[in-house]
Each structure stands twice: as C-alpha cells, then as structure tokens.
Write a structure and sequence with these properties.
mainly beta; 9-stranded mixed beta sheet; 7-stranded antiparallel beta sheet; globular
C-alpha cells in the first residue's frame, strides 16, 4: 500500500475483535485467538496501514488440561490492549472462567502468566481504564448470554490500580434493553476524553450491527448514546468493534472489524474526528470508507503479516498456531529446512476438527493459492499427512500409507453435520511417498484442491466452499497423524509453504 491513499481492509484476514494502542511512534494491535495456541497475537505498525506480526502474549491456555483438546469457540475473547505505568497490559474474557490479565515491560515480553482478575461465567470483553486525573482505575465488561443468561448490558467496576482485582461487585452502567432498537451490546472500549468517560461499543450482531458511543461525566453513569458508524449504503456489513487511537500529530483513527463469512473478521481503518457537539464522527459522516487519505505519518514500506515459511531448522513462523495446547514431540527441530511433524496417534483420526495437533494459519481474504511440498516418512499403515482448509466443514489433500505399504494421494472432506470424513476424490498412487499439494482459494472462499505426484498438478474432487467455525474464520492447516495404537508412528516433512495471490 503506497501513495497518498490506502484501501480497506488493512488486515485482510481473520484478526477478530481488534484493539489498538500507540506508544511513542509505534502502534500495536491485538485480537481474539479463541482456542488456538499461542494466543493473543501482537501486531506492530508505524502508519496504521502496514502491519507485521511480532509475537504472541500467551504461550499456553490455562488450565492446560481443559485446552488439551480443541475448543474453537472458547478461550480468548475480545482482548483490550493498554499501556500504563511503563507496561503493556492485555485484559480478556474467557466466557467459561472469567476476566484474565497479562502484562509485560515490552511488546515482545516477557509476558506474565495469566492472572484471573475476576472469576465468573459469561464475563466477556473486559477493558480497563487508569484515570490519570484522579488515580482511580476502572474496568467495564459485557456478558455472554450462553453462559450467564445475561446480554445487552455493560457492567462497570472499580479496579485495584495494579490490575490484580476488582474492588466491588459491579454495577450495570449501560442497559441497552432500555434503548429502543438496541440489542447485543458488547465489546466495550473505555476512554477518557474532554472531561467525559467514553465507552465505544458495538451492538446489533457481528454481521449486521453498528458502532455505538456512550458518554458520561461519571464512570458509573448515567450514559447517553449515539450510533457513530453503520453500513448505510456501503458494502461493509456490520462495521464495528475495535479501538480508537490518536497519532502524535493529533489525528484520530478507529480500527474495527467486518465479518466476511469463511474469511472471518477482517480489519478496516476509519478516519475519526470529534464533532462540534463533542461526539466522535467516524468514516465518511458515519459510513465506512473503502479508500481514504493515509494517516499523516512517515511513509512506510508495504508490509503484512507473514504467510510463507521454509521452516528453518524445523521451526515454524509466528503465523502458525496449534488448535490446542501442544505437547512435546509434535514438531522436531533439526539441522535443515522443513517442518517435521510426528504422525500423532489418535482415536479421532477420522475427524480433523477434533485433533489438537493441527498447525494452522489464517485463510487469506483475497483470492490466493497455498502450496506445500510433503513427504510421508511413516511406514505405519493408516498414517497420513496433508494440507487442509478447516472450519465447521473441512477438506484436505495429502498422502496416506496403505496396508500393503504403498503411499496414495488422498483427498477427503467432512460436512458440518458429519462426524467423520469421506473421500472427495479418487485415491491414486504417489511414487516415492512425495507430493506437491495446492489449494486455490477463489472468490467466496471456494477452494479447488490439486496435487502433483510427478506428472504436474492435477485437480482433485469438486470445488469445496470453505466454512467458518462459530466465531472464527476458516483456517489453512498442516497435520500428520496415525490411527490409535502403540509406539512411534513415524513422521511427515513439509517444505516450502507458499501463499501467492491469484
């Protein structure tokens, strides 16, 4: 993205529920990671348009045994990122456990282990505020009706200044059931500006909702409200839930998501200003922009979170996440390039959605092709490895060792309602136990699988429409597995993973 303008989305993949903070000349962003590990991604930018992934704040999900298996819609929901007392702070809600917090002296850590600030079911989307005028600290959060029976309201608390605990039982400070037409109020972000307490919070649901602003002279209310960003006559559905940030020169900007089906929640950048009446004005008079003048910041070279990987020394890049807490031995480090994954034995080998040992990255939001070279080194009958597009429904292409010792190229899929996969294409021999695998992701996340077993790329099966999880976009995945049994089942090696625009 060069020149005088930028085009939305600025992060064209599933960086769900973004929040942003500026420290000096640097901007940092985090996002929901749900049940994937490591969690709490950390992105960096100098211009709010070009972003790179610099790490994660959460090495493992706790309690560890709970997240030893995939929990795709649990874990880390809607974090808030703040900088206070020379430290970075991230608060998030685990809908089944409560409000957690981690902090670090620098964005790359070391980050503390998760600290449970408040235990409880359905406590989600927390955001802290340290009031520099009074020295008081506060926290606001929303509610998940699936766990608590409560929704559409925001609860406020006083908080210990060290961020370790809340000082009261909380008070409902915004009850959107009392606001005509409002529903599913959630995702609050708390600020102080111009003598007011401000809560920027979305409502109306992820696909069709709007961005609200609330203000009060006192933290506990009463608050008045206004809709400050909505779809209007644009093609940006449900523009909401994000964070406000101010540049060193005083420009105001708002980063939010847009729900795009299998692509997940992509991130848009909206201009923002404070109107003559003191309320924020986002986008083009409350409508999201597609192309706009770039922020008044020093020009930066084009950048985006990494996708390609040569797996040097057997290590995988920051863009990859496991579908649950990993165990030792799943990925082996070595002296060369290539990702060596153990064929982990599992009674759930028939359903990738139930496996913790799938290494994933986000599905690109624009038409692309993903390719990887695979060698199946396992001699175990039934051992298999491949490249998958994962969601409530999934499909994969890869290699499997037969009972007679031969290796076949196989292509399989499972519908959302199915409890096991079945063939999507006819198996064929894979001489030498090698194949180059490819998935072409077209408009609408329609995926065509291909493989080269030595005679050029040949398509396999029908086009597969990628599907999201409940709250998560579809994922690209690499895996190796074997049926349940005893002993080591060998490994598979992946090399030269590439994602290219179509």
């Amino acid at each position: 993205m060069t020149g005088a303008t930028y085009t939305n989305p600025v992060l064209d993949a599933d960086w769900s529920d973004p929040d942003v903070v500026r420290v000096g000349d640097d901007f940092y962003l985090t996002a929901s990671s749900f049940g994937r590990v490591p969690g709490l991604p950390l992105l960096h930018s100098r211009d709010l348009v070009n972003w790179t992934l610099v790490g994660h704040a959460l090495e493992r999900l706790e309690p560890e045994d709970r997240f030893a298996v995939p929990r795709h819609d649990c874990g880390v929901w809607a974090p808030s990122l703040r900088y206070h007392d020379d430290r970075f702070w991230i608060f998030w809600g685990d809908p089944d456990q409560g409000v957690f917090q981690v902090n670090a002296p620098g964005i790359r850590g070391p980050w503390t282990r998760p600290h449970l600030v408040k235990e409880g079911k359905g406590l989600i989307d927390p955001c802290p505020l340290w009031d520099e005028e009074t020295g008081e600290a506060y926290l606001v959060h929303a509610w998940a009706r699936s766990r608590s029976g409560i929704k559409n309201r925001l609860t406020g608390h006083r908080m210990r200044p060290d961020g370790t605990a809340l000082l009261d039982e909380g008070k409902v400070i915004v009850d959107a059931d009392r606001i005509p037409g409002w529903f599913t109020l959630e995702g609050p972000k708390l600020y102080r500006h111009d003598g007011w307490f401000w809560i920027l919070a979305p409502a109306g649901g992820v696909e069709t909702g709007w961005q609200g602003a609330f203000r009060s002279r006192g933290f506990f209310g009463p608050y008045e409200e206004r809709v400050v960003l909505e779809q209007k006559d644009t093609d940006v559905n449900g523009p909401h839930q994000g964070g406000w940030v101010r540049t060193p020169s005083g420009e105001d900007w708002f980063l939010h998501f847009q729900q795009r089906g299998a692509y997940g929640r992509v991130v848009h950048l909206q201009p923002m200003r404070w109107g003559d009446d003191g309320w924020p004005v986002m986008g083009d008079d409350g409508a999201p922009v597609t192309v706009h003048r770039r922020p008044g910041l020093p020009p930066q070279p084009p950048a985006a979170p990494a996708t390609d990987d040569d797996f040097p020394g057997g290590r995988f890049g920051r863009q990859w996440q496991w579908t649950a807490n990993p165990r030792d031995g799943w990925a082996t480090q070595h002296s060369g390039d290539g990702l060596k994954l153990a064929c982990v034995r599992s009674p759930d080998a028939h359903d990738l959605r139930r496996l913790p040992n799938v290494l994933t990255q986000r599905l690109p939001g624009t038409p692309s092709a993903a390719e990887v070279e695979l060698r199946l080194d396992s001699e175990e009958p039934g051992a298999r490895a491949g490249l998958a597009v994962l969601g409530d429904a999934y499909s994969w292409i890869g290699l499997q060792r037969g009972a007679d010792g031969t290796v076949h190229l196989v292509h399989r899929f499972a519908e959302a309602v199915a409890d096991r996969e079945r063939d999507a294409g006819h198996p064929r021999l894979a001489p030498g136990g090698r194949a180059r695998l490819r998935v072409e992701i077209g408009p609408g996340a329609r995926c065509r699988f291909l493989a080269d077993t030595g005679d050029g790329f040949r398509p396999s099966g029908q086009v597969f429409a990628a599907a999201p999880w409940r709250w998560v976009g579809a994922l690209l995945g690499l895996f190796a597995l074997a049926p349940a049994g005893r002993g080591h089942a060998g490994a598979a090696t992946f090399t030269q993973f590439r994602v290219t625009p179509s």
